[in-house]
Design brief:
The protein is α+β, with helices and mostly antiparallel strands. Helix content is 13%, strand content 31%. It has one helix spanning 26-41; strands spanning 46-48, 58-62, 69-73, 76-81, 86-89, 97-100, 108-114, 120-123. A hairpin with a 6-residue loop joins strand 2 (58-62) and strand 3. It is globular. 17% of the residues are buried.
Amino acid sequence: MAIYDIVKFPNPILTTPANPVKSVTPNVLKVLDNLAETMKYANGIGLAAPQVNILRRLAVVDVEDGRGRLDLINPVIVEGRDEVIGPDGCLSIPGLFGDTMPSPSLSFLKACAPSRAGMKKNVR
């Protein structure tokens, strides 16, 4: 596996729409594994492909609830509501942390994304 360099704000790739993944290939799975390795190396809990200069709709999340790592391929937010205020940070903005109240539409997420095997699943 490889450790990617994390893109830092204000790099414009961080606000550029990412391209959808057309199929789950061995290369896509390798990118997901490398994203996870990079996330762990950087002590993060989530990392998206554009944060490592890959303009694809891929992300990994460690939700620390016993489910392990979640690999997200073309995730779509299907529901959201305001539930929590808590500590937040971003690997692309190092050293900046604080208690935040996320957007009401994003603090509780239910996302739909294909799994590594190509089957759709809902993630809460």
